[in-house]
Structure formats: structure tokens, C-alpha cells
Here is the input.
Amino acid sequence: MARLTILRYPDPRLHTIARPVADVDERIRRLADDMLETMYAAEGVGLAATQVDVHERLLVMDTSEARDHPLVLINPELTWCSEEMRVAEEGCLSVPAFYDKVERHASVKVRALGRDGEPFEMHAEGLAAVCVQHEIDHLRGKVFVEYLSALKRDRIRTKLLKKAREEQRDD
Ligand code: NI
Here is the structure.
């Protein structure tokens, strides 16, 4: 397995719309395993392929407390969303050190293929519901900061660009 580089906002590649995975083959399984390793190393609860610059519909997540329940969702689709909405604080591995409140469906049902290529359906609520909606957004080219006000988003963009410039200088 290998750790992958995570794109950082405002990298324009984060706005690429992912295409469906055609075959759940060895390449896709290796990508899923590398994404899980990358996600655990970064202490995230979810990671979409978009964030590692692969523009195919694949995401990984683990919202378990013990961090021992890895999930691989290939070609995920929301099949049901609760009318009830909930506001929760979110962060993103592509937007390091920023957290803000986002309103999403309180629970959702998702259909996807697993790492073995077999279809399954998942009912997610709480953190898992937040996470899966956040990651599916990534596959549509949407980053959670786009739910925030233009003012907040610009502030985040400016700070992250400054940080990236500083890191480049240090290299
Ligand atoms: Ni994210």
C-alpha cells in the first residue's frame, strides 16, 4: 500500500466531476486500499478519489469510534434522503485546519458496490450520514466550503494559498 498526496483547496482539480468506475478490478482495489491508508494516516473519517486526483466515483470512509470499520463505496448513489435536516460541524482533509457548520440530511440511504464489486445498500445516520454526503459531494466536484458564505470561503482560500506559498518557500 502507498500513501497518496491529498489535493488542497483551492486546487481547481477538486472541482472535477468524477466518472463512474467501469470495472472493479485490481487497479480499483489497490486504489481503495491506498486511499484507506492515506485517510487513516491523515486521521480523517472519509476520503474521495477526487481528493487524490483520481476522477472516478470511489470513496472510502470509517466513522467508527475504534477506527476498525473501513468502508469502500464504488459508484455510490443516494437512493433516499430524510426530510429532516441537521447542522453539524465539518472539516475536510483538503481544507486543513478549518471547520464550520453545514446543514445536511439527517439520514440517507446509499447504494454502491463494495471492494469485492458486489452491490450493497447502506442506511447512514449521525456522523456516517454527514460523511457520506460530504464525500459524494467531492465526486461531484463540490468542496464543503462552497456551503459557506462567500466571505468565509474567500478567507479560507486566502489563508490556504498563503500557507501553500510558505511551504513552498521552506522546501
Ligand atoms: Ni472532504
